[in-house]
Amino acid sequence: MTSTDNGGTPPDTTATDSIRSTASPFAGRLSADFSEVVGKVRPELHSAGFGGQLTGIASSLVEKILPPLRLHASRTHDWALVNPGQRICDTHFVFPLQTKDPANPSNYYFSPTDEILDRTINLLGMNVLYRMGTSIESVNCRRQGDRNPRYYNSVEPEDWTKNARALEGIISHYTEGWANGFHWGDRMGWWELWNEPNDRPGGSWIVKSQDPDRELNQNRFFDFFVFTLKRLKTRFPHLKFGGPAVCFYDEKFLRGLLEKCRAAGYAPDFISWHHYWVEPDWMLSQPAVARRLCDEYGFTDTKLIIDEWHYIPFEDYWGYNGPEKEARKIDPTVGTCGIDSAVFTLQVLMGLQSTCLDQAYFYGCNYGGQYGILKDDTSFNKVYFGLKTFGSALAAGDCIVKTADTKAVRLFGVRSADGAKMALVVTAFKCPACELEVEVKGVPPDASIKTHSLDDNHDLAPVETVRAGDTFTFAKADGHSAAWLVEIG
Q1: Which pLDDT tens digit goes with each residue over 144-174?
Q2: 48 - beta bridge partners?
Q3: What's the confidence (pLDDT) of residue 315?
Q4: How do the domains of the chain map onto residue ranges?
């Protein structure tokens, strides 16, 4: 979830929209030079919550769905919710009874989690960020006369020491082979402690008494986090531990957590947070802010991870919005799975490569629904093709080339080390119908070129390449978002 509190000031979202009604302002401002390499692709920034499936809409389709996206890694959060009937990943499913002895392998239920992780790592070829704790608990049950909901999975562990020992058992099973387990430490090196503890008390964390007081819950979580972090970092010094996946860039909360860590003498290996918004630039500005925060506390080696992010179609998205806004959420153009969302996704993926962020995980994890990549009939939606556009570009190579662009129209170019293959992504986010002229240097005049279009009417469909010397022209037919993939060589 996203809030404007403590996360900096969101950009003016009217700036991009205003371009819709003006003449095209892009002439002479768009260029790419494939002869000038400016950096290397960091694949860790192209990860997601999608992974292996045991049940559900995509359980038999993932081998065909995911490889074209070229995702680097998967985060296990909410997997228990999107695999109906399966007891997987969440700590209370893998170690169900915390009154039992964590040293006894028979007290764990590993089998379905083994299977889904094996599918993710060995079948799909993805690394894994394992989220410890619970998936989001969205219950809203009230007992007669009670003022507040009752929670079950998100409640603070009764015995912190026993809980930490159970986590050690889970980690040892997947990285050291304990309890007939696996040696996947090179593929499961990152372990996240909890998820969105700064959300409403109970959604992901609440004290044992279920007192909803926010300050009480936050301070208790800080102590719990540091206690568990110390145990796990001491037991597994070669692995990475951090979190806590705050539900927006909540600097006040993060300061409280980092202060506790500094006082205890234990730096988290990473901090993580989430971001949902209507345009790319606020998210792209946050890594630099988070870097300064960690450095201020002396944690210069602490990595930065945004491990949930997604487009939302309007600023007041959260909460009850009424029938009109509910309809807008699923609109094929402006909705969470529409063409605006797909091009937003591309611009974020492109822009992250020039930030100091270390890892990023697109949300969701359910293949269908409003954060998914499949329609109800299991055909691909626009967001799928946005992710595929970026993955297809990365297939050309990992050398990022020099580009010049604007706020609304952004470019991303990559090439192979020897220059034999190149790819250019052109994105136009919420801007008017016009012809986009891009000056492209470093492409031989006789090069083989294929252009694909992603818009309201095309799903990476082949279109005519319009080239005159070094100038490539892309015709934008309407005021909706659009993107093009140019494959060269």
Answers
A1: 555 667 889 999 999 999 999 999 999 999 9
A2: 74, 362
A3: 81
A4: 14-22+42-394, 399-488
Does CATH number 3.40.50.300 belong to domain 14-22+42-394? no
CATH of domain 399-488: 2.60.40.1180
| Size (the chain), residues | 489
Predicted confidence (pLDDT) per residue in 400-457, tens digit: 999 999 999 999 999 999 999 999 999 999 999 999 999 999 999 999 999 999 999 9
Q: At which residue do the structure tokens 């996206």 appear? A: 69
Calculate what percentage of the chain has a pLDDT beyond 90: 83
CA of residue 15 relative to chain centroid, distance: 25
For residues 234 and 227, what is the distance between their CA atoms, to the nearest angstrom? Answer: 11
| Lowest-pLDDT choice from 140-144, 213-217, 286-290, 462-466 | 140-144
Contact 200, 217 (CB under 8 A): no
Distance CA 402, CA 436 (A): 18
> Parallel, antiparallel, or unpaired for β 459-463 and 359-362?
unpaired
Model pTM? 0.94
Quote the pLDDT of residue 235: 98
- Model pLDDT, residue 75: 98
Quick one: tokens of 257?
A: 């957590």
Furthest C-alpha separation in the chain: 77
Phi then psi dihedrals of residue 42, to 5 deg: -105, 100
- Which two tokens mark 72? 């680097």
Query: How many whole angstroms separate alpha carbon 165 and alpha carbon 228?
Result: 9
Span 441-478, pLDDT tens digits: 999 999 999 999 999 999 999 999 999 999 999 999 89
